[in-house]
Design goal:
about 375 residues; alpha/beta; six-stranded mixed sheet; five-stranded mixed sheet; 10 helices; 14 strands
Length: about 375
């Protein structure tokens, strides 16, 4: 039940190249958006002191925005600092659930256990009459990396109440926006440099995959081939994208020169999109084989994936899964007096909004 008296922190979705910030408030009929803000990180992208300073500048700009209430925040680390893996295990005699997860995780962690901060957002208990096997999805980060980002955030003026993981925020947002059925769904969030793909039911995460694939490669390829700048390349993705794949939409483009542009954009994008499809085939194939699900209720495109015209039709055709782009702002309302961007700018705020929905009990 929504409680309008709960004060929620600022959600800070820190990526490799951008920070998206969101703060919400509970209304009588749903969540209201108090403030949204996007700041580009103007660093060289070399994971060094210059990037830390650039992130600090971006965060201080957000902290100075008086549209946000307070300085308490929950944050995501950049996805390249997060590790995720599935576990299948049994609990030994005299052992607790957490002890069993820690024991089994030793094999998969790329760093020593004592350096790790771990969470398990999904644990599935054994089926009645089964072999006693539990299944869990584990996410982890280096403690030193978390402390590093906490220091930058605190210097920028924020009081960090919690660090969350992207998969948890995405599922939290999706469950607010959509009703889930018995069959699994695929959630695909795309940012500039990486994508997160999760297969989930209402109550569990069946598989999770991080992919080094994002819109930066698409825009760069368009820039090189057409001699456009980054802004123009993004407009071309939004206006044309893969529209050539949908003949009805394509033929609605009256101008022959624009139709030629659509054909060229399609030819540029398809080889890169096929790389994402390969990863989607891997994770859906794994779920079909390991979890005995033959049917998916749908695939939902979040983040910058929703800004590529026609991507949902292309993926649906190649994967045979009903696919839809998601703009979270279509299900939120602005707080009276708050700022509200053009709705078309809403998709990249998905993770920040899901993060802002997290209840921090001591606030």
């Amino acid at each position: 039940m929504l409680n309008p008296n709960i004060r929620r922190p600022i959600g800070l979705d820190i990526g490799n190249t951008d920070v998206y910030a969101a703060q919400i408030q509970e209304g009588r009929r749903g969540f209201l958006v108090r403030e949204l803000m996007h700041v580009r990180i103007a660093g060289p992208g070399e994971a060094g002191p210059a990037d830390d300073e650039a992130l600090g500048v971006a965060l201080r700009e957000i902290a100075a925005n008086e549209g946000f209430s307070g300085k308490r925040a929950v944050a995501h680390l950049p996805s390249h600092d997060i590790f995720s893996f599935p576990l299948s295990f049994q609990i030994n005699e005299g052992e607790g659930l957490e002890e069993a997860i820690l024991r089994e995780s030793l094999e998969f962690l790329p760093f020593p256990m004592e350096e790790a901060v771990m969470d398990y957002p999904s644990v599935v208990a054994p089926a009645e009459g089964g072999d006693g096997e539990y299944k869990a999805t584990v996410v982890a980060a280096r403690r030193a990396d978390i402390e590093h980002y906490l220091t930058i955030l605190e210097k920028a003026g924020f009081v960090v109440e919690a660090v969350d993981f992207q998969v948890s925020s995405l599922i939290r947002l999706h469950n607010y926006l959509h009703e889930s059925g018995r069959n699994p769904i695929v959630l695909c969030n795309v940012d500039e440099t990486r994508s997160q793909v999760s297969v989930a039911t209402r109550n569990s995460i069946l598989a999770q995959l991080g992919v080094k694939w994002g819109t930066e490669r698409l825009t760069s390829k368009v820039q090189v081939n057409l001699g456009s700048d980054e802004r123009q390349a993004r407009i071309l993705l939004k206006n044309f994208g893969l529209v050539y794949e949908n003949r009805e939409s394509f033929m609605q483009i009256a101008d022959e020169e624009l139709r030629n542009t659509a054909r060229v954009i399609h030819q540029i994008l398809v080889p890169l999109i096929e790389e994402l499809i390969y990863e989607l085939h891997k994770i859906t194939g794994y779920v079909r084989a390991e979890e005995d699900y033959a049917f998916f209720d749908g695939m939902y495109l979040y983040g910058q994936a929703a800004l590529i015209r026609g991507l949902e039709h292309y993926l649906a055709k190649r994967l045979n899964i009903r696919t839809a782009p998601v703009n979270p702002l279509e299900k939120f309302l602005p707080l009276e007096g708050g700022s509200w961007p053009d709705p078309s700018e809403g998709p990249p705020f998905a993770l920040a909004l899901g993060l802002a929905m997290r209840t921090v009990r001591w606030l």
